[in-house]
Amino acid sequence: MIECSDISDSYPEYQELEKIGADKIYFSDNFPAILFKEVDSFNKNALKQIAEIQHKAWNYRKIMFLFVVSDTEIRIYNCYEKPQYIKAESSYTNELKEYEIFSCIKTDKDNLKVLIELFSRIGVDCGQQYV
After folding, report:
1. Angstrom distance (rounded) from CA 124 to CA 105
2. Residue 131 included in any domain
3. Per-residue pLDDT of the chain (131 residues; tens, 9 = 90+)
């Protein structure tokens, strides 16, 4: 995993990923696969950022998932799914639900086990996760 701010040095051919708005990127065999974003909470401002990142990642056509983490929750969004145009007055919670493929509270041990099984490094690198 690499910080977005370090992409130009480590992967100059992917320097345009710095502009997507994610914090970190996981590369699978030298190809970008997963974006990571940390938020304080899943409030309207954060959800707007998530929608924008998902849209840019979909346009980029190489990113599989967007993992968004707060202090209490983890959400995973599908970046292969074509985004809708989201208006400023839209409910980002409802609009983003279509792209959300996994969500759990960090203290939910059963769901965290599912997360590890479906989105393990091997699963992502081999394409075994479910989209």
Report:
1. 22
2. no
3. 889 889 989 899 999 999 999 999 998 888 899 999 999 999 989 998 999 999 999 999 889 999 999 999 999 999 998 887 767 777 777 778 888 888 888 788 787 777 777 666 555 555 554 44
Distance, CA of 85 to CA of 52 (rounded, Å): 10
99: tokens are 């792209």
Give the CA angle between residues 18, 117, 74 to the nearest 5°: 50
- pTM higher than the cut 0.85: no
In a domain, 41, yes or no: yes
Domain that holds residue 26: 2-126
| Pairwise CA distance, residues 57 & 35, whole Å | 8
CB atoms within 10 A of CB 94: 10
Task: Show the tokens assigned to 93.
Answer: 């919670």
Q: What are phi and psi of 30, to 5 degrees?
A: 70, 15
CA separation (Å) from 3 to 25, 29, 50, 60, 119?
6, 17, 17, 18, 20
**What is the count of structural domains for the chain?**
1
Residue-level length of the chain: 131
